[in-house]
Amino acid sequence: MTERVLLKEVRPYGEGEPVDVLVEDGMIARVGASIDVDADEIVHADGAIALPGFVDLHTHLREPGREDAETIESGSVAAALGGFTSVFAMANTDPVADNAVVVEHVWRRGREVGLVDVHPVGAVTVGLKGEKLAEMGTMAKSSAGVRVFSDDGLCVHDPLLMRRALEYTGALGGVLAQHAEDPRLTVDAQAHEGPNAARLGLTGWPAPAEESIVARDCLLAGHTGGSLHVCHVSTRGTADILRWWKSGEDRGGTVSAEVTPHHLLLTDELLETYDPVNKVNPPLRTDADAQALRQALADGTVDCVATDHAPHAAQDKCCEWSAARPGMLGLQTALGVVASTMVVPGLLDWRGVARVMSENPARIANLGDQGRPIAEGEPANLVLVDPEHRWTVRGEELASIAANTPFEGMELPGRVLTTMLRGRITAHEGKARQ
Ligand SMILES: NC(=O)N[C@@H](CC(=O)O)C(=O)O
Ligand SMILES: [Zn+2]
Ligand SMILES: [Zn+2]
């Protein structure tokens, strides 16, 4: 049976007069003024902005192992409500996703829930130990079809291992997503190394711990012809290195990078609160860093936004700062934070948001059916956004099992009205539809 959904009065990319979009059998069948046909469902969008569904290259779904913080189901609900149609589930689960059995489990469970495409990320090294390469080929060939590999949470810091990892992922047509943080440049780091951490007596991550790894890995990507993706860029210096790299010709290899919403908005001034909800890796940096990151996202130096959605159970966040785990929720607040940091100040228009939250991440991960134009004959992976709607973040009201949002009580612009995955409405007016 043909499933038909009619979206009345949407503005693709926030441009021009509202149009109607007819979706049939998972595809965009027609785009035009005043389409009047029978449909199974009619969504009155009242001029809401239509964008291609968001793609998150960096999500922690915690299943298997920490279902007290998040499950593939609860995380999928959060993703659909946040406007995402694809998420990449990081490998630092328990057991680690370093073999075909675990990645196939994550992939299958994601399909069962069916709210968002869950793409398992494969670990680079066995057990994330940074010693021996994991069976990347087996994970790539499994039904999960793994294409993104990462030891995220930890840095692949051994240079020879990193070189080999880039060679292997390159041969598999994959991407290596690096958590760039050289652990040997500090001891027991808890925050950004600077005056604010010093005042509290906390040891910090110095900016060069990130920058030296990024510079090295860019050179290795060029040398091996591999594909490097830099996770959660957090410093001005990293933006400068990426800008230098991207301005060169014939470097060989490919380098892409992501920035998180929290690094665009928040700074280490928050250390003063001593509230572990603000503890994250890489740490919140200075205002100059955040400004440089917004600029780098606007000018394309940083390709995309990724949430690094990192749920933690209450007991792992309610303790003393140094005992708390790093990480914060991000799926449902990403759009609002990007709207407030990038759209409101005029650094990006909505077409730019489509680029950094959908088209570029889909391209980096080589997803053929996502991040596509809103046009007839294209797959109907869409999100409708009401840009005027402001809402207040309440951790308890978010779909995640954990509630560790640093944006608690903040009013954000831009609300997801509807999310659609292959023509099926997965979220509408704040409710997921399973
Ligand atoms: N970002 C974090 O602070 N934590 C992440 C790991 C990571 O992304 O490095 C986590 O898994 O909790
Ligand atoms: Zn990380
Ligand atoms: Zn992460």
UniProtKB/TrEMBL annotation:
<feature type="binding site">
    <location>
        <position position="60"/>
    </location>
    <ligand>
        <name>Zn(2+) 1</name>
    </ligand>
</feature>
<comment type="similarity">
    <text>Belongs to the metallo-dependent hydrolases superfamily. DHOase family. Class I DHOase subfamily.</text>
</comment>
<dbReference type="GO" id="GO:0044205">
    <property type="term" value="P:'de novo' UMP biosynthetic process"/>
</dbReference>
<dbReference type="GO" id="GO:0008270">
    <property type="term" value="F:zinc ion binding"/>
</dbReference>
<feature type="binding site">
    <location>
        <position position="232"/>
    </location>
    <ligand>
        <name>Zn(2+) 2</name>
    </ligand>
</feature>
<feature type="binding site">
    <location>
        <position position="58"/>
    </location>
    <ligand>
        <name>Zn(2+) 1</name>
    </ligand>
</feature>
<keyword id="KW-0479">Metal-binding</keyword>
<dbReference type="InterPro" id="IPR011059">
    <property type="entry name" value="Metal-dep_hydrolase_composite"/>
</dbReference>
<feature type="binding site">
    <location>
        <begin position="326"/>
        <end position="327"/>
    </location>
    <ligand>
        <name>substrate</name>
    </ligand>
</feature>
<dbReference type="GO" id="GO:0006145">
    <property type="term" value="P:purine nucleobase catabolic process"/>
</dbReference>
<dbReference type="GO" id="GO:0005737">
    <property type="term" value="C:cytoplasm"/>
</dbReference>
<keyword id="KW-0665">Pyrimidine biosynthesis</keyword>
<comment type="pathway">
    <text>Pyrimidine metabolism; UMP biosynthesis via de novo pathway; (S)-dihydroorotate from bicarbonate: step 3/3.</text>
</comment>
<protein>
    <recommendedName>
        <fullName>Dihydroorotase</fullName>
        <ecNumber>3.5.2.3</ecNumber>
    </recommendedName>
</protein>
<feature type="domain" description="Amidohydrolase-related">
    <location>
        <begin position="285"/>
        <end position="425"/>
    </location>
</feature>
<feature type="binding site">
    <location>
        <position position="152"/>
    </location>
    <ligand>
        <name>Zn(2+) 1</name>
    </ligand>
</feature>
<keyword id="KW-0862">Zinc</keyword>
<dbReference type="InterPro" id="IPR050138">
    <property type="entry name" value="DHOase/Allantoinase_Hydrolase"/>
</dbReference>
<feature type="binding site">
    <location>
        <position position="92"/>
    </location>
    <ligand>
        <name>substrate</name>
    </ligand>
</feature>
<dbReference type="GO" id="GO:0004151">
    <property type="term" value="F:dihydroorotase activity"/>
</dbReference>
<dbReference type="GO" id="GO:0004038">
    <property type="term" value="F:allantoinase activity"/>
</dbReference>
<dbReference type="Pfam" id="PF01979">
    <property type="entry name" value="Amidohydro_1"/>
</dbReference>
<feature type="binding site">
    <location>
        <position position="179"/>
    </location>
    <ligand>
        <name>Zn(2+) 2</name>
    </ligand>
</feature>
<dbReference type="InterPro" id="IPR004722">
    <property type="entry name" value="DHOase"/>
</dbReference>
<keyword id="KW-0378">Hydrolase</keyword>
<feature type="domain" description="Dihydroorotase catalytic">
    <location>
        <begin position="48"/>
        <end position="236"/>
    </location>
</feature>
<dbReference type="InterPro" id="IPR006680">
    <property type="entry name" value="Amidohydro-rel"/>
</dbReference>
<feature type="binding site">
    <location>
        <position position="281"/>
    </location>
    <ligand>
        <name>substrate</name>
    </ligand>
</feature>
<dbReference type="InterPro" id="IPR032466">
    <property type="entry name" value="Metal_Hydrolase"/>
</dbReference>
<dbReference type="Pfam" id="PF12890">
    <property type="entry name" value="DHOase"/>
</dbReference>
<feature type="active site">
    <location>
        <position position="308"/>
    </location>
</feature>
<dbReference type="InterPro" id="IPR002195">
    <property type="entry name" value="Dihydroorotase_CS"/>
</dbReference>
<feature type="binding site">
    <location>
        <position position="152"/>
    </location>
    <ligand>
        <name>Zn(2+) 2</name>
    </ligand>
</feature>
<comment type="function">
    <text>Catalyzes the reversible cyclization of carbamoyl aspartate to dihydroorotate.</text>
</comment>
<feature type="binding site">
    <location>
        <begin position="60"/>
        <end position="62"/>
    </location>
    <ligand>
        <name>substrate</name>
    </ligand>
</feature>
<dbReference type="InterPro" id="IPR024403">
    <property type="entry name" value="DHOase_cat"/>
</dbReference>
<feature type="binding site">
    <location>
        <position position="312"/>
    </location>
    <ligand>
        <name>substrate</name>
    </ligand>
</feature>
<feature type="binding site">
    <location>
        <position position="308"/>
    </location>
    <ligand>
        <name>Zn(2+) 1</name>
    </ligand>
</feature>
